[in-house]
């Protein structure tokens, strides 16, 4: 059911006063109260204007989508992240699912017709994941990771070399001391 902005605003105001409006016909009380609590969370996170039913849809860039998906993958709940930015949690769930299957390329929106998008989403569950082309962002992340591994390996090698040099120096010192002891014994005879 679609509610007007004025109705949502009134419900949020009543909620802050500790009251609920009358439940509309055909809607369960528990579900309606849950919806109002969602509106309150959205209003707290994004302001009261986030409850407007304007027909304009924000065009999210892949970087913005990735930032939200990263928060979910880091342990935040889909609902809390969605509420914090004022989007539907189902939309965020789809982005997370696409990211898990296709990586960063799954977050890049295609300029298709709405019918094609519907078909793609219906087939989405049955498609086998394909290996996406590596984007510059993914390549940068991969190269940084490789560099970090190489730095760690270099540090280990440096420590091994230093340890070998110490052992060799100690061995030479012991050999020198041994030879000097042997030469002292020869001199006394």
List keywords for this structure.
single chain; 189 residues; mainly alpha; Arc Repressor Mutant, subunit A; 3 domains
Average pLDDT confidence is 80
Helix content: 55-70%
What is the quaternary state of this protein? single chain
Strand content: under 5%
Kindly state the number of beta strands: 0
CATH top level class name of the largest domain: Mainly Alpha
Q: Tell me the overall shape.
A: elongated
Unreliable stretches (pLDDT < 50, length at least 5) are none
The number of domains is 3
Radius of gyration: 32 Å
Largest beta-sheet characterization: none
**Architecture of the largest domain in CATH?**
Orthogonal Bundle
Class from helix and strand fractions: mainly alpha
How do the helices and strands follow one another from N- to C-terminus?
HHHHHHH
Would you give the CATH topology of the largest domain? Arc Repressor Mutant, subunit A
Our measurement of the CA-to-CA distance between the termini, rounded to an integer number of angstroms, reads 111 Å
Report the total helices: 7
In short, what is this structure?
By secondary structure, the chain is mostly helical. It has 7 helices and no strands.
Per-chain topology:
Blueprint: H1 5-16, H2 29-46, H3 62-73, H4 78-85, H5 89-102, H6 114-124, H7 136-188
Helix pairs in contact: 1-2, 3-5, 4-5
